[in-house]
């Protein structure tokens, strides 16, 4: 694997990210900031903080891009960046939807019975 | 011959189902795993967009691909139509099914803002069953003839239709 200045990700539409560590650091800090707006006992906050902190620690420790990709085991670094952006937008929407509240409405008793 | 039971996959799917149910208790009414290792989430209709966006965007559940969107008509129930979404995760190579319910007159949120693929599928469900999708960009008939009246896949629609051809 030699690092030329002309690399490609191999995926259509995804450009090579220069300085992925910085980008990931910004994204993960933003996600953790948004998660502070969720009540502490919500399962979404707990699990997402766990995932983000794990990935953040790996990003902080590992400076080499190739080794970081192997350790994260989640496809290319550019894909990890896209995934972090998705998680950020999801966290913002979750603050509005509040899915940790109890069930909105019970279904009628015969709704999910199969066979009828 | 019978397909051998894959207990490990069954356990993984049960664990994942419990994980999702813990994160979204507001909308998920029931979670089940069939004996063929198919995970199904049974949802309240208000929760379509939150649940589909969660399944698409969350890191542990990257179900980026909407494989199918259909409906099932069970006329004896109060909410006779059951809308079914089949999702596929390419990162984790797994599938999940999300089911909601509605009756003939209640509109359902369109899944098009979440998955662009839902466009024609929702047109088909509207055409064949009569389930109206709110906020759909272009909801019109797709399979029936131009002046066709009625919704053919409903159980009370006769086999040879109402019009003689």
TrEMBL record, chain A:
Q: Where does this chain mainly localize?
A: mitochondrion
Q: How does it sit in the membrane?
A: Peripheral membrane protein
Keywords attached to this Swiss-Prot or TrEMBL record, sorted alphabetically, are: Electron transport, Membrane, Mitochondrion, Mitochondrion inner membrane, Respiratory chain, Signal, Transport
The answer to whether the entry has keyword Metal-binding is no
Compartments annotated for it: namely:
Mitochondrion inner membrane
Q: Name one GO biological process term.
A: respiratory electron transport chain
Q: Where is the signal peptide?
A: 1-17
Report the GO terms under cellular component: mitochondrial inner membrane
Identify its protein family.
Belongs to the complex I NDUFA5 subunit family.
Q: How does it assemble?
A: Complex I is composed of 45 different subunits.
Which function does this protein serve?
Accessory subunit of the mitochondrial membrane respiratory chain NADH dehydrogenase (Complex I), that is believed not to be involved in catalysis. Complex I functions in the transfer of electrons from NADH to the respiratory chain. The immediate electron acceptor for the enzyme is believed to be ubiquinone.
Please report the name of this protein according to its UniProt entry: NADH dehydrogenase [ubiquinone] 1 alpha subcomplex subunit 5
UniProt organism field = Regulus satrapa (Golden-crowned kinglet)
UniProtKB/TrEMBL annotation, chain B:
Where would I find the NADH:ubiquinone oxidoreductase 30kDa subunit domain in this sequence? Answer: 43-162
Give the Gene Ontology MF terms in alphabetical order.
Answer: NADH dehydrogenase (ubiquinone) activity; oxidoreductase activity, acting on NAD(P)H
One Pfam match, by short name?
Answer: Complex1_30kDa
Name recorded for this polypeptide: NADH dehydrogenase [ubiquinone] iron-sulfur protein 3, mitochondrial
InterPro entries, from UniProt? NADH_DH_suC (IPR010218), NADH_quin_OxRdtase_su_C/D-like (IPR037232), NADH_UbQ_OxRdtase_30kDa_su (IPR001268), NADH_UbQ_OxRdtase_CS (IPR020396)
Q: Which NCBIfam families match?
A: NuoC_fam
Quote a single Gene Ontology cellular component term: mitochondrion
The function of this protein is: Core subunit of the mitochondrial membrane respiratory chain NADH dehydrogenase (Complex I) which catalyzes electron transfer from NADH through the respiratory chain, using ubiquinone as an electron acceptor. Essential for the catalytic activity and assembly of complex I.
């Amino acid at each position: 694997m030699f690092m030329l200045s002309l690399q490609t990700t191999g995926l259509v539409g995804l450009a090579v990210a220069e300085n992925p560590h910085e980008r990931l650091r910004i994204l993960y800090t933003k996600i953790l900031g948004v998660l502070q707006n969720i009540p502490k006992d919500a399962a979404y906050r707990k699990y997402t903080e766990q995932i983000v902190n794990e990935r953040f620690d790996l990003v902080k420790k590992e400076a080499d891009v190739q080794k970081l990709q192997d350790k994260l085991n989640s496809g290319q670094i550019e894909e990890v960046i896209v995934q972090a952006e998705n998680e950020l937008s999801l966290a913002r929407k979750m603050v509005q939807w509040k899915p940790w509240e109890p069930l909105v409405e019970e279904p009628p008793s015969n709704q999910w019975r199969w066979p009828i | 011959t019978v397909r051998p039971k894959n207990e490990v996959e069954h356990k993984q799917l049960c664990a994942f189902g419990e994980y999702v149910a813990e994160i979204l208790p507001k909308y998920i009414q029931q979670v089940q795993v069939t004996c063929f290792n198919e995970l199904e989430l049974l949802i309240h209709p208000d929760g379509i967009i939150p649940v589909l966006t969660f399944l698409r965007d969350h890191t542990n559940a990257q179900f980026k691909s909407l494989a199918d969107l259909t409906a099932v008509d069970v006329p004896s129930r109060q909410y006779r139509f059951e809308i079914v979404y089949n999702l596929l995760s390419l990162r984790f190579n797994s599938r999940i099914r999300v089911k909601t319910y509605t009756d003939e007159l209640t509109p359902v949120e369109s899944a098009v803002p979440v998955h662009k693929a839902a466009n024609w599928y929702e047109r088909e469900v509207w055409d064949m069953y009569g389930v109206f999708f709110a906020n759909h960009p272009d909801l019109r008939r797709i399979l029936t003839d131009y002046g066709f009246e009625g919704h053919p896949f409903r159980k009370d629609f006769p086999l040879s239709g109402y019009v003689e051809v």
